[in-house]
Amino acid sequence: MKQSRFSIHEKLAIIFVMALVCGPIANGQAGTGTISGAVTDTTGAALANTKVTIKEKSSGQSRELTSQNNGAFVATALPIGEYTVQAEVAGFQIQVQSGIILQAGREERVDLVLKVGIRSDIMTVDASEAPLRTTSAEVGEVIAKERIASLPLNGRQFVDLTLLSDNVFKAPRGTRGSALAQTGTGVLVAGQRAGHNMYYLDGVSVTDQYFNHLVAAPPLDAIAEFNIQKSIYAPEFGGKASATISAIIKSGTNAVHGSAYEYFRNDVLDARNFFDPNKKPPYRQNQFGATIGGPIHEDRTFYFLSYEGLRVRQSQTQLFSVPTATVRRGDFTGLP
Fold first, then answer.
1. What is the 3-state secondary structure (H, E, C) of 140-171?
2. Are 100 and 85 in contact (CB under 8 A)?
3. Residue 297 backbone phi and psi in degrees, to 5
4. Taking all residues of the chain, what is their mean pLDDT, rounded to a whole number?
5. d(CA 19, CA 45)
6. Which one of 59, 119, 228, 286 is at 20 to 30 Å from 274 when CA atoms are compared?
7. Whether residue 197 has pLDDT greater than 80
8. Predicted TM-score (pTM) of this structure
9. Which element (helix H / strand E) includes 326?
10. Are strands 33-41 and 112-114 parallel, antiparallel or unpaired?
């Protein structure tokens, strides 16, 4: 048998590099967004063959398109983030629309109206106010990174944050769905069963097809945002009768960013159990982790790493009935 010429450490290094290089390519539509629109002049006439540049602010990555004969353009599978869209064509001023926030599984419509003028003139439009969404009739909500980072969450499971959305409830404990959940209790959306949800991580399904539950829950500090689509979503998100929940892992940017945290809990603030004779049983819980991300090649390749650990040490006081000496001799007199 031919032996491998790579050591285990070399194999791990190769896998790590492949993940860095191929990670952005593997994104599915559930983990990305779309920017579409049309380019026209002030009279409403379509401007064909217009150069449209779509650039993400934090990473500097850009994509160039050419408008079609009807002036339309569409860019799919874009990573989430803040974008700038620029349109330029001979005989017209350059128009730049900034502040376009692209969220997971969403399509943003950006229509550009160019004025006749010198090409070197630039007109900038700020799109900070979100327009009425006309590209989709889906009912859903995006839980952004600000809410993920700032809200306290016992256990730090991101699926629990879906309870911030309306018509979402936690599955009752003791039910089949709660017992089979591998990463915490499930959620009920619009009256559907907890096992009828679909879960995606960066566009890849992380739904257990046997028990129909989430099987991979990344740390909260590693999640940029997640989207819960409750009904009337696009066909590519189908597969179950209930909601589609898509989480997006953070990406490295041109600047190095990181975080470190620890959540500590012990028995000092716990009340004494009624059955504890003298003192409370010991309890220690540590949940800790760190993240770091940055550039490998500016505007092109990035890295992001995350780690989280959980350590729980506890004891419990319980009462048991043990057989008396008479019963151990086989005398059951007086027992019901």
1. EEEECHHHHHHCCCCCCCHHHHHHHCCCEEEC
2. yes
3. -135, 115
4. 81
5. 45
6. 286
7. yes
8. 0.69
9. helix 325-328
10. parallel
